[in-house]
Amino acid sequence: MNLDNQIAVITGGASGMGKACAQALTARGVRVVIWINR
User: Fold this and answer.
1) How far apart are CA 17 and CA 2, in angstroms?
2) 8-25: per-residue pLDDT in tens?
3) Where are the domains of the chain?
4) How many CA atoms lie within 13 Å of 9's alpha carbon, on the beta-carbon side?
């Protein structure tokens, strides 16, 4: 699947699964927006 130039919004991206997903997606060319609510 080609994910180049796609945008993903991830909630809870500071740690755990959210962080892992953000890192995996950016490695595949996805632009990631991370929402952290503390």
Assistant:
1) 22
2) 999 988 889 999 999 999
3) 1-38
4) 1
Q: How far apart are CA 36 and CA 29, in angstroms?
A: 21
16 torsion bin: left (phi>0), alpha (psi -120 to 50), beta (else): left
- Whether this prediction's pTM lies above 0.90 is answered by no
Q: Which residue, chain included where needed, has tokens 């609510």?
A: 37
Question: Position of tokens 């755990």?
Answer: 16
26 with 5: CB under 8 angstroms? no
Considering all CA atoms of the chain, what is the largest pairwise distance in Å, rounded to the nearest integer? 34
Nearest of 14, 8, 21, 7 to residue 37 by alpha carbon: 14
